[in-house]
Amino acid sequence: MVKRFKSSFKARLMTLAILPVLVVAIALTMVVGFRLQKIMSENTIHELQGSAYALREMIATISTDEFRVDENGVMYAGNKDLTYLNDVFDEFTKESGMYATLFFGDTRRNTSVVNNGQRAVGTQCTDAVKAAVLQKGQEFTSMSTQVAGKECVVAYVPLYQPGTKNICGMVFTGISKDNFKKSINSAISYVLIVALFATAATIAIAVLVSVKMNAALVGASKVCNDLADGNFTGDKTSAGETRADELGKMVNSVNELKERFDTTISGVKNNIDTLVVSAKGLDKAANETSTSMNDLSNAVEEIANGATTQAQEVENSAQGIAEILRTMESINESVQQTNECTAEMDVNSRQVVGDFKTLIEDTLKSIEKLKDITEKMNHVQDAVETVTTAANDINNIASQTNLLSLNASIEAARAGEAGRGFAVVASEISALADQSNQAAVKIREIMSNLKDETEGAVSMVSEMSEMMDRQDETSKKSEESLQELIKAIDRTKEMVGDVKENSDSVQKLCSGLNDNISSLSAISEENAASAEETSASITQMSQVTQDVLDMSRDLKSVADKLEELTAYFKVN
User: Fold this and answer.
1) Each residue of 277-318: pLDDT tens digit?
2) 67 has which bridge partners?
3) Is the Cβ–Cβ distance between 281 and 344 less than 8 Å?
4) Coil, strand or helix: which one is 124?
5) Secondary structure (DSSP) of 395-415
6) Which residue in 23, 303, 322, 535 has its CB near the most CB atoms, within 10 A?
7) pLDDT tens across 462-471, in order?
8) Alpha-carbon distance 429 to 163, whole Å?
9) Distance between CA 6 and CA 17 in Å, rounded?
């Protein structure tokens, strides 16, 4: 039973500790990955837009003359040749990793985009870009647009003739989609590595705590199983004794209960052994007394018969008197033995009563200890409720924090490049809020299981308390029976004294009859009268002896029953 409890509870405890961590880690990694991809996409678009506007402002400062293209496709600002912008764009690409292009109309005139070893000068933009920028005067951004045969993340802004709002071309910035994907994958890989290390550390801590808690519970369970089986010979459990929490208190309480039960049951069994021996001696003495009383009754009957025929057969009467004398001596010896046995029964019975009082006192102390244990278990249940309430508070705080983080992310997105760092901080706060929420859920689950286990322990202690109450009631009834037995023994002592006095009287009468055989007729009448009195006394003695025999058998039955009940317990 202990082995089954150990394996099942340990597996469940570790599952409760590890499974939520794994689920949270996987879910958090996925959420962070998706969120990171979205943030990086938005940041990339913002950077491309900012760079395009910066390039447009730089180009606008070159000349105040309008832009034009000659017959060779070379772009000018007034009379200034803008071919040198190719070198500027190449340097810009080298420093920032972004492509740059200056459009006149829908055609590339200066660019850092290279296709098959040649600058993509003279190539045109897509129809979607043309419609948005050249026709509507809007900026155009896309996460996937073909640029000279390459899939790119792009941003297009309109280019105006100096001093006017006339759109004459576009300024383009973009990056390769492959390079963007590599950046995304690198960031996600970093997040995944951090999540794996955090998950491994959390699982290691959870496994260590689970193993220690399980060892303490298994040890306490083994001691409780031994107590339930009536076996007090096993060792105490050392696992969890040094813990300062409620689990350590439970282990120490179980060990103390085991020691007290061992001491109490050992004393009860020793006293019951003494009671059994005394009961057997009383039963034997009562049987002997009953036999002697039967012999005495037969002797008295013979005396009566002798008194009837004494006048005809004096010699036979003399022999009968001699036989009566011998029988009376035997009766006196039996009565003396009965008197001694009765005295011994009285001493042993009073000793048993004292032992039963001690047993009752120990049982009451055990009941008080069980009540203390029940009260401590109730305190554990209150503590579990308190922790569960605290976990709910943590959950509420995490929800509020998550909402604040979402608002901060929205404000950071509105701020553009200036809010980029604040958006990352808001994302981390959101992740921490989600972790706090999951931790609160795990705490509630653990507290729920602990509450169930604590309620089971309270139920077990209550059952033990009821059993001790029943033992206390049985002990009190046994004490009352012993008190009645002592009173019966006192009455028996008085009756045995009466029997001895009557036996002495009969012996004296028989001696006088033997000395005065000459006055046989008168002595025969006296003997007949004495025989009648003796017969009445013997009848009374027989009844008393039968009562003593019945009481001794009842006492032996009670002793046997107590021995049978305590045989269930095994002590050192």
Assistant:
1) 776 776 677 677 667 667 766 766 776 676 566 556 666 666
2) 77
3) yes
4) strand
5) HHHHHHHHHHHHHHHHHHHHH
6) 303
7) 777 777 777 7
8) 47
9) 16
